[in-house]
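So, can you check these tokens?
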Amino acid sequence: MTGAEFAAMRKVCGLTQSALSAHFGLSLRAVQDIEATEGHVKSHYTLALERVALNCAYVQANPMIAPPIVRKEALQVAGMITGGATVPRA
């Protein structure tokens, strides 16, 4: 994920850079630096943003906010919990 893709996902969640920095426990400047990254964003920031996106999807009752891979994994976990059908494992 590039910095621009990171920023786009943050915006889909409806979060400002300041709000995301609070979620991450980082300074506003750190979030700005992440979004200015021209190459790939460090994976731990990507994973953290995906987790925030999943929470935003739940809070806003809009599963499409969460990235596709996160939705797939959430369905797998839900299936295990409920004993229902699951999406095949990758």
